[in-house]
Every structure is written in C-alpha cells, then in structure tokens.
Here is the input.
Amino acid sequence: MSAEPGEGSGPGARLDPGARLDPGPAPGPDHPRHGEPAGPGPGAPGGLFAWLRGRCLGRGAAVDPARDTFGAMTGLYGAIQAADSVSLSTRTHGAVFNLEYSPDGSVLTVACEQTEVLLFDPISSKHIKTLSEAHEDCVNNIRFLDNRLFATCSDDTTIALWDLRKLNTKVCTLHGHTSWVKNIEYDTNTRLLVTSGFDGNVIIWDTNRCTEDGCPHKKFFHTRFLMRMRLTPDCSKMLISTSSGYLLILHDLDLNKSLEVGSYPILRARRTTSSSDITSSGSSGPRAVGSPCHQNDSGPLSEKHLSRSSQREGGSPRNSLEVLTPEVPGERDRGNCITSLQLHPKGWATLLRCSSNTDDQEEGAPVRPVSPRCSLRLTHCIEEANVGRGYIKELCFSPDGRMISSPHGFGIRLLGFDAQCRELVDCLPREASPLREIRSLYSHNDVVLTTKFSPTHCQIASGCLSGRVSLYQPKF
Here is the structure.
C-alpha cells in the first residue's frame, strides 16, 4: 500500500520572476474598475494604455470570445447534482491513486493500489479494459503523451509505456529510479518524458529513441525529500515540492542540461513580496506562501559560489534555481509538507496542498526550523479537515483555470476565486481571500483521494480509498 505523508491544501505561486499580476491603478474617472473589462477600443475610458493592457490580460469579448463559453461551462458545473454521479466499479483493485483523461476526452484511465490500471469510456460509463498486472506494486500516476500513448509509474521503481491500440503488452519498461516513482510529466516540444520519485531524482527519458529495451535516460536533478514535480504549460519552468516545506523553481528550463548538486545558479532574494503571487487552498489550517531564500534541500550554497555561477552563466543563466518557503498563517512554528502540487493551465498560479509535518511526518523528513524569510503573496486559501491521514489528496484545476476540484472527506468541493468563478486576473484581491465554495458533491463511502476534470466535456471524475470511481455530469 502506498502510504504518503500528510495533507492540506492551498493554491500557489506566480511563476514569472520579476513580474507580477498587477491589480492595476485604483478606480477613478480615467481608469476602469479592477476586474471590469477595458473598453472595446482605444477610445474607451482609460485611453489607449488601458485598452492595450486589457488585451494583454485577455479581457473583453472582442479579445477572447471563448470567455462566454467558459461562463456557460461554469454554470453547468454549478448545476451538477451528486445524484447524477455514475459509479464505476470492478473487482478489488485497491485504492484509486490517480485519474487521467486522454487529451481528446475519449478514455479515462485509473491508477490503482493493487497493481492495476483500469480504462473506461467516460461518455458511456463502460469498462473498456483492465491491465491486471500493469506493475508489480502500486500504480501512482498516469500521463498521456498523445491520444494513444500513455505512461504509468509505480512503487516498483519503474515506468511503463502503453499504446491504446495494443494493450496486451507494454511498449517498453523504463528502469532508472531506485525508489517509488510518483510523478510523470511530458514536454511535447522535445518529446522528453520527465519523472520524479522518492529517491529524490528527476530523470529525463528520450522517447524519440525508444526501443523495446527502454529509452535513453539521464539524471537531471536531485533534492532530498522530493514529493512532486511539475512542468509549466509552456515547459519553461520546473516546480518541485518537498516534504520539508520547500518549493523549488527552475527558471528558463533546459532539459538537455543535467544538473549536479551545487552546479546551478540560485536567484538572489532581491524581489519584493509583490514579485510573486501565490494562491493557496488549505487542509489543516489556512495556507500561506514563502519567498526566495539561499538554501535548498541539498544544503546551503556559499555567496562566493553564487557569484562565480552568475558571472560564468551570464545575467540570465539557464536552469536558475529559486527556493521558496511557503508559510502557513498560524502555524509558523511547525514545518509544512507540500504534498500536492498543481499548476494553473495558463501558468498564472500554483495550487498547493500543505500539511503540518507534526501531523503526518515522513520518516527522515525534518520539521523546518523557524527562520526569518520573505513571504510570497498569498492570494487565496481555504481550510480542510485532515481526513484520511497517510494518503495524499490530489487537487486539480478546470481546463479553463476558473475552478478547482478538491477532495473533501467522502466527496469533492468545487472552488472558485470568487462567487462568479471569474478568472484569476479579473478578480485578483489586494489581500489574501478565501476560495469560494461553488458546490459540494458527495457520492463515496470512503475518503476521496483524487479528482479530475474532463478536458473536453462537462464532467468530473473522483476516486476513493475503497476503489470506487464516480463520474459527475449535468442531467438534462
């Protein structure tokens, strides 16, 4: 059984160094109010500058007609009833650890505790296939590379590639990790597969040169207490969360360049608190977020080394490391484990789920000592009960980034940045605000561990500890 430390939650961090989501000028006769679209043209109130700024933020129907569609989808999600859920159950396959839709929404894959991978047709709710011995241990994560090829990873330390057209056998098995593999990412530009595990390693696999014996691979990065790793939508940055409470960001990402401990430049903590924006959602207390510092989980680096790195690599070196320390209001005396990490589909924010290391502490993971650090800007947070300790709860954004689906006890909660489910840039608060609960859906008899929005349909899937999968969709 895959027992993982702690839980808690909180949406996350603005990723562009040196930039921020500027709430704009105060409302006045010459400026549109914050959150309101700029006028339809240069002659609108606020003048040319306000109009151009509105275009950059994607405001106004003339700029983004799809916003009307997003608003309609939000209304449909708000109308979903728990009674409309469709239960998908098979034989005993253990807890559901991960759900993943194919990019075209035609297949729903389920990663199970007891070595199985289940495949369903999410439209008809029919069971397609069970990969009964997909791995030799728990299946933790599934990632589609395209509409046909997908990868699975497991506590058996391997990654497997599968083709929907030939599910009787694996395309290949990848060996390289030495501990449980928990996360898979994919760079569609370079066709490089990126995996991370509890051995602290991030490994790059070249799927361009894949054979039956595997893919060429190399260790890209290492840090202690690694929990989750994500790539931004444009693959320009890599984010890593740790059980010791750090959030690491590699800027200007170059996956072709391997990094050894101490060989990467660290960004100096010269930015103010408004230079990074963090959105947090909580679990055992409200979530706050921290700032750049000069220490990572692999140990401190000297100022002399930092200076040499900056001079050698130039002003903006590739793979520059930024180390952040998210803080939890009211719990500053305790270290926090960042158990779940998700990114806004437009790269505007990160979604973090945190818990106190004193609640659920991984063996060997230290309680982070209290030290003065700058705080990143917390934009939103919410508190959740610590139900089902020992298992990670995986949150997710909706495809348009307006809503968050979060496991909540025996069900899920749909959360928005405001009551109207507006986009983050249109309702960015000046101070941290609570996420708004749009709807709660309960259809499980056990603790929900994972949830996922369909990329193409108004549908949400959830999976629980007893192995049940439910689909939620409007009833017409």
In short: The first strand starts at residue 10 and ends at 11. Residues 1-40, 268-315, 358-375 have pLDDT under 50 and may be disordered. DSSP finds three helices and 34 strands in the chain. The two ends are 40 Å apart (CA to CA).
